[in-house]
Every structure is written in structure tokens, then in C-alpha cells.
């Protein structure tokens, strides 16, 4: 492919993405295909001779689109948001275009320098204490990792390093292997699966402690667990506090857990993967009170902050423990800039580094702080509106409401809500997933897409209401919210579902 063809191909691809966004609202959010659908659509062997880019691009509609789950659709309400914004997309494109590998400062100085500066911007934006920032005088700093899962694991390895160093300095009679064999970590039973995984990968048992009725890990529960383990001869080492749990977006209190970690000399890591973005708005920062007790803090701009995946922001108070845990030098990695700029390869697992800071920089500059605040407040307001709609129907109950996530259920037996979700799922007009609240089944409704508007919330609510009417066999007893725009949207979607199915049948 020569430069001229690249220009054409690239421009056509941007047009394709723009068309996709223009039509996304009318696409059924979930695909209609069955596992293995693609085998019939592409040959079993790679082509011997190169094909034209036009042929390849045309195949997106035939092969790929039928199997896409439309995460950016305004009807996608599952999991948590996965950010996708135009500045973020262009940032990704340009970074691919530079094609550098940022394994050291000299490998591409702009990579490191922009990451240092944007992580300072971002840390200030969410109100992190100065000591976490690269621009502070101390050993703290921020780095962009690939995912919150990676960060929880990396922080665990740093905590392990610190504990071994500290115990040796205190003159322990235990060997390093003996210390490592006794280490234990804590989080709550509401924490993300990645927290338990970090314990497995890092060979440190992770105790998932019970939470209160709001999904919050209380200080006494943590303190008792630590005491119990010390009595067994174990060495408590690492605590993961959740600010915005995956099931219900519950917030642990850092002011409660922090002093225990400080007294017991445990590394406190904060997982704010989704909800950390809300701290861009001053009115939500109180939920981060006590962050000064943390040793490491993480949130994902690639979830709620409009920066395309992957971009997971991590700050540590003392980068020394990361560097000591991960520093492996080789002659080919030596450069003369030691100490002048962070060598981020020592802060992460892989050697190579992507230019993630570019898309972060684009998003911060093009949206501005106000644009991001507006996005967060808008999505929270939409979730509140959905909550109002649920509360207004006495067959339903709201289980929890936090940020852009509402958990709700049908009153009565769990099987009713399970059936409700199943029926809504079969219609494929919106996508929601199940959760648990206080050991009871609930449905999670998350405002995910930046395109979601009030009419989409009404549309989603009508889907639930109609499915509930079917369950109670009292069709139309509760009047549907009539909103002209959402009615029109419903009809358009039905037409487009029909034509998409016809299209797929033709391809078969
Ligand atoms: C609270 C929390 N922590 C961690 C994760 C994992 O995030 P990642 O996919 O970046 O590893 C999630 C994912 O939704 C989450 O909700």
C-alpha cells in the first residue's frame, strides 16, 4: 500500500466510523448471530495475493458488523461505560501512526514527557494530594497503565516489595521466602473480580471480607480480620478499598479504612476504576476523603472520562517500591537521562509502552474540564431520571442508586426479576445485565454511552415496563410513558431489526 492509497483508505475508514456513529441509535444493541457465525463468511486460509483496501473495507458490513455488540449505542446499559470519543479515536490513530515503542525516555521523549504532564493535569483535576503527583518534590508520581486489573496487581507487587524491605529493616529472623509465604491481602466481597485475580497472580491470598447492607467494607470488619490473621502467624500486607464497586457503585470510606492501614502498616490501594471520573466534579470529591492514607490510587479514564480504551491512570505516593520491584537493567536499555525523567518501564509489567498520553491530552484539551464535568453530571442526571421512573411504578423497587448506576428489581421473589431481565434480553432492544444487592438478584441499569439522552432512558424504561406487563399478564394496565421521540425511535428500531435480519438471511 503506497502513501496515496493510505490517504484514501484512512479517509474512508474515518467516514465509516462517522457513518457508524450517525446510525448507531437505530441499530439493535445486541447481535443476532450464533457462535461460529464467522466461519462461513471468511475463507479458512489467508489470501495468497494482497487484496484491495476497498474489498477489505466492504467486508466490514458483511463480516464484522453482524457480530458487533454496540457498546456505544445509547441503548447499551450493561457493565460500566467504555469510553469512546472523537478526540480519543483520533489520538489512538495518530499514536499508531507514529509507531514508536516508548521503552525508555530516549526511545521517544515525547511519550514520557507528555505522560508526566498529563498525569499531573489529571491528578490535580480529581483533587489528589500533591505528594501523588510527578510535579511534587517527593518520590510520588503518576503513570498510565493498560487496565485497572493490571494496576491492582502491580500495586500488590509493590506492597510485597515494601513489606519484605520493611521487615528486613526491622531485623526479622524470617527469610524473604518465609515472609512472602505468610503475606495476606484484604478487600471486600463487592470488589471486582480483578482484585481476587491480583491475589492469585501475586501468590498472596486475598480475603474478600463481608460488607454492610450498602456494600461498604467497615473498619471493624477489616480490623478483626487483621487481628485474626496475625494470631495465626500471617503477615497482613495489602488492602484494596473500593470507590465505586462493580455491583452497585458503593463507596468504602478511606477515612475509616485508612487509619487502620496506617497503624497496621498495610499498603492501601484505591480502586476507583469507574467512579474516579466523578471527582472531576468538586461536589463528588468528598467521596475521596481520606485519600491521603492511600499508597496507590487508580481510576480508568477509559471508562467514564471519554478516553478510548486503554487508559488506566495510576498514582503512587512512593514510586521507589515499584521501581525496586520491577527494575531489571540491561546494557541496551541504559541511557544518560537517569533521574531526570521517570523510566516508566520500571513502573509496569511489559517493556514496551504505548503512547496513551496522546489521546488523554486530546480529550482534556478538546473537552476541557467543563466539558468532562458536563458529561459526568448529565449521565448522573439521566440515571436519576431512570430511578424516578422505576420508583413511580409500585411493582418495582430501587435497590441502590449511585452515580450513573441504578440497581432495581421487581418486588417479590427473585425469579420475577430474573424472568424480567430474560424477557428484555430476548427483545435485544436494550442491553442490561444482572447484579446482586444484599445477596438478592437485581438488574443493573448503567448510563454508558455518551449518546444516551432522556428519550433513550424513557425507551429503556418502556422496555422493562412492557416486559413486566407480560409477566403479570396485565398488558397495558400501567400506561406506557408516551414520548413521541421514543415512540418514533421504537418504530425505527423495529424496522431496522427486521431489515438487518433479512440481510443476514440473504448472506446465509
Ligand atoms: C471497580 C472496578 N475495578 C476494576 C475493574 C476492571 O477494570 P479493567 O477492565 O480496566 O481491568 C472494573 C471493571 O468494570 C471495575 O468496575
Automatic annotation (TrEMBL):
Entry superkingdom: Eukaryota
Gene Ontology MF, one: lyase activity
Transmembrane regions listed in the UniProt entry: none
InterPro entries: Aromatic_deC, PyrdxlP-dep_de-COase, PyrdxlP-dep_Trfase, PyrdxlP-dep_Trfase_major, PyrdxlP-dep_Trfase_small, Pyridoxal-P_BS
Cofactor: pyridoxal 5'-phosphate
SUPFAM superfamilies with a match to the protein in the record: PLP-dependent transferases
Pfam hit, one: Pyridoxal_deC
Keyword annotations from UniProtKB, A to Z: Lyase, Pyridoxal phosphate
Residues modified as N6-(pyridoxal phosphate)lysine: 303
UniProt similarity note: Belongs to the group II decarboxylase family.
Protein name (database record): Aromatic-L-amino-acid decarboxylase
The species this protein was found in: Cryptolaemus montrouzieri
